[in-house]
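Project outcomes to date are best conveyed with an example. Our students and postdoctoral researchers have been running inverse folding experiments weekly, and each run begins with a structure described purely in tokens. The record below, which covers 386 residues, was selected by the lab manager from last quarter's runs and is presented without edits.
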């Protein structure tokens, strides 16, 4: 038994999401960071890695150098997988090279720069014996797993309507564009064809499908660019038709002043409804028309096994975003261990979003942009090459 060895591309000094990935990966003691190419600037990459106490010879000038040199190390030293935490335009080339060199991949979302790249990534994975995970973090919350379980068990009855919203306010003004995190997200050369839908709308869509156990079949979108001279959307509303005939609404915005990371999911069945908010992640509300409303709490009562497994502390001790993030990394570590042991290492068994979710996410982003520009009302969630 040993720790799973992780390399990282991106996430150097001044980066936001890379530090969160490192914290999440390290939380359960199953994964250790052993190497990285932390910046496109070779000197910054080296200094960033050494600030993380990595040896100088494992702090690489580029991801190309990292994959080439790591692959030449002995099996008891080289990294097992790479975490990709770069701007979107690099997700595919980094993942492609990692897969070709035989390394497993855990990628930040969205999976790629466009849908065609996501489909190409699936073909690569079919031809190489490696694992792929995608950090749709919100799937990792214990009460989201409880909600998914309740829907799957039929406690709500047939699903009729779903409402999911993700509201932020951090891009509400022109002055907000100066940060490193904002500048690349608003640049179509680095981010892709969408800012808001590509950054947070895709999270909302994934969460909806994950919990409801249904896919988005058709959508009608209205995307907006509310701040002068922006090239990409910062706000949007999407009407949805799901595979069982249920209807839905998805709202995502980064210009809602005063909102932090207000992700909320409501699912209405024919018998009951559930309501979860990231602002109070340990609580899940269960409602009906003829019974008292119930407040389900993480760690209290008879919750499903997947929810219980996702918790680390007794009831009343708050767990949040880092812990949810860590659940994905913990499950990916289990997946890698199963892979090396010749056991079932599927994404479904270990509950890690994978290439199918990656493709659906990219299809959602592209179809919302296409639909918003079109006079046609409904657009199919096309997951074939465009």
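After processing, the design step wrote out the following sequence:
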């Amino acid at each position: 038994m040993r720790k799973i060895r992780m390399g990282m591309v991106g996430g150097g000094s001044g980066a936001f999401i890379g530090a969160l990935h490192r914290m999440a990966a390290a939380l359960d003691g199953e994964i250790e960071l052993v190497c990285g190419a932390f910046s496109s600037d070779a000197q910054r990459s080296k200094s960033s890695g050494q600030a993380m106490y990595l040896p100088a010879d494992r702090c690489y000038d580029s991801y190309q150098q990292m994959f080439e040199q790591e692959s030449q190390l002995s099996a008891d030293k080289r990294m097992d997988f790479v975490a990709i935490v770069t701007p979107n335009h690099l997700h595919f080339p980094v993942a492609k090279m990692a897969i070709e060199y035989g390394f497993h991949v855990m990628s930040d979302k969205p999976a790629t720069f466009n849908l065609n790249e996501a489909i190409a990534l699936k073909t690569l994975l079919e031809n190489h014996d490696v694992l792929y995970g995608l950090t749709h973090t919100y799937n990792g919350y214990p009460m989201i797993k409880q909600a998914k379980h309740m829907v799957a068990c039929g406690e709500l009855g047939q699903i009729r309507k779903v409402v999911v919203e993700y509201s932020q306010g951090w891009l509400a003004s022109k002055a907000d564009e100066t940060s490193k995190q904002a500048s690349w997200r608003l640049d179509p050369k680095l981010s892709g064809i969408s800012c808001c839908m590509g950054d947070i709308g895709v999270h909302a869509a994934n969460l909806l499908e994950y919990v409801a156990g249904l896919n988005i079949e058709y959508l009608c979108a209205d995307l907006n660019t509310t701040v002068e001279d922006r090239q990409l959307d910062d706000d949007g509303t999407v009407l949805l038709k799901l595979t069982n005939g249920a209807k839905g609404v998805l709202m995502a915005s980064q210009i809602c002043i005063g909102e932090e990371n207000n992700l909320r999911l409501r699912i209405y069945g024919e018998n009951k409804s559930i309501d979860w908010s990231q602002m109070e992640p340990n609580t899940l509300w269960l409602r009906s028309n003829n019974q008292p409303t119930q407040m389900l709490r993480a760690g209290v009562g008879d919750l499903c096994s997947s929810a219980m497994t996702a918790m680390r502390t007794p009831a009343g001790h708050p767990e949040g975003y880092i812990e949810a993030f860590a659940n994905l990394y913990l499950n990916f570590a289990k997946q890698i261990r199963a892979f090396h042991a010749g056991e079932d290492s599927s994404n479904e068994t270990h509950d890690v979003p994978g290439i199918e979710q990656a493709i659906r996410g990219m299809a959602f982003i592209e179809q919302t942009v296409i639909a918003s520009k079109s006079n046609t009302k409904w657009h199919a969630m096309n997951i074939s090459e465009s």
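The longest strand covers residues 159-167. The mean pLDDT is 97. The training component of this project remains on track.
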